């Protein structure tokens, strides 16, 4: 077989290279998986530093202008005409402006910028109309009269908030898609490389078993047995693995030379023995002939 003509050192080098390739694949897989996880972390970090912060600021804005906030307290002041409520309105105006600025600081697109301007104008209108309402209340106007003068149309601001929610929904969906894509890519790559590593390890194990049991172990056992029988004097023993082109074949050739020399030495010893026996017979014959005279 062709495989038996390869040197054992050559096959050993091949197995070592296969092991190196396997280790290399494992290292590459680990590095790429870490990078994939890092990319996933960056995608999630972008979400946390962008849409997630905007969601918080929008909630703060809603709390500042909604129920219990600026608009609610403004209406309470108009109808109750209780001066301490003015302070509450002013506090909520400041909170709304802070939330508005914080949202804008995260970074906004054109639609968000326009919506924030609309909401900002509404907040400014409430702050301005609060001063008007204070003067009218101080002048003794009743709540209905004051309300007619300072009443503000909130619908543009509500539409603006709806736009912000819509934009945030798009951003969340985009971030979710990016996260899922990163997870899918990392999972697919890890799975594919795990299969590749499994195949390489399987091939490596099979080659190692074949090499140790059949390519090396069995021929060596046969060679050791043959050498033992030859050492015991069984010169009819057939030397195995002759004709192979590897180191075991070289060993078999050396053992064959040893056997041939042993056979030659045995034959020479047998010939010498026969020669001695012939000489002894001639000597005895000559002595017998001499005694007969």
Sequence-ordered SSE layout with sheet pairings:
Layout: H1 8-49, H2 51-65, H3 70-80, H4 84-106, H5 110-138, H6 143-150, H7 155-231, H8 247-291
Helix pairs in contact: 1-7, 2-4, 2-7, 3-4, 3-5, 3-6, 4-5, 5-6, 5-7, 7-8
Outline:
This protein has 293 residues and is mostly helical. It has helices at 8-49, 51-65, 70-80, 84-106, 110-138, 143-150, 155-231, 247-291.
What do you see in this structure?
It is a single chain. This protein is mostly helical and about 290 residues long. It has a domain at about 50-150. Helix content is about 85%, strand content about 0%. The mean pLDDT is about 80.
Extended strand count: 0
**Helix vs. strand class:** mainly alpha
Radius of gyration, whole Å = 50 Å
Chain oligomer state:
single chain
How confident is the prediction overall: mean pLDDT?
A: 81
Helix and strand string, N-terminal first? HHHHHHHH
User: Which strand-content bin applies to the residues?
Assistant: under 5%
How much helical structure, as a percent, in the residues?
over 70%
What structural keywords apply?
293 residues, mainly alpha, rod-shaped
């Amino acid at each position: 077989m062709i495989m038996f003509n390869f040197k054992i050192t050559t096959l050993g080098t091949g197995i070592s290279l296969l092991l190196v390739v396997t280790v290399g694949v494992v290292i590459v897989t680990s590095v790429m998986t870490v990078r994939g996880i890092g990319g996933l972390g960056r995608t999630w970090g972008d979400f946390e530093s962008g849409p997630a912060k905007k969601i918080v600021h929008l909630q703060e804005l809603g709390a500042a202008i909604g129920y219990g906030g600026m608009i609610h307290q403004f209406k309470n002041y108009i109808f109750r005409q209780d001066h301490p409520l003015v302070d509450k309105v002013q506090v909520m105006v400041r909170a709304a402006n802070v939330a508005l600025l914080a949202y804008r600081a995260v970074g906004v697109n054109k639609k968000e910028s326009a919506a924030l301007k609309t909401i900002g104008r509404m907040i400014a209108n409430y702050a301005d109309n609060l001063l008007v309402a204070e003067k009218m209340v101080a002048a003794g106007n009743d709540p209905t009269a004051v309300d007619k003068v300072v009443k503000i149309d909130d619908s543009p601001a509500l539409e603006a908030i709806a736009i912000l929610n819509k934009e945030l929904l798009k951003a969340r969906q985009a971030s979710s898609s990016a996260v899922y894509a990163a997870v899918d890519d990392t999972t697919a790559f890890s799975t594919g490389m795990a299969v590749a590593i499994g195949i390489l390890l399987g091939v490596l194990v099979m080659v190692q078993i074949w090499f140790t049991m059949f390519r090396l172990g069995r021929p060596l056992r046969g060679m050791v047995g043959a050498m033992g029988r030859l050492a015991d004097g069984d010169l009819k023993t057939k030397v195995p693995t002759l004709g192979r082109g590897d180191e075991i074949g070289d060993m078999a050739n050396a053992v064959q030379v040893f056997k041939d020399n042993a056979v030659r030495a045995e034959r020479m010893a047998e010939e010498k023995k026969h020669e001695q026996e012939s000489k002894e017979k001639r000597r005895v014959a000559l002595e017998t002939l001499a005694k007969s005279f």
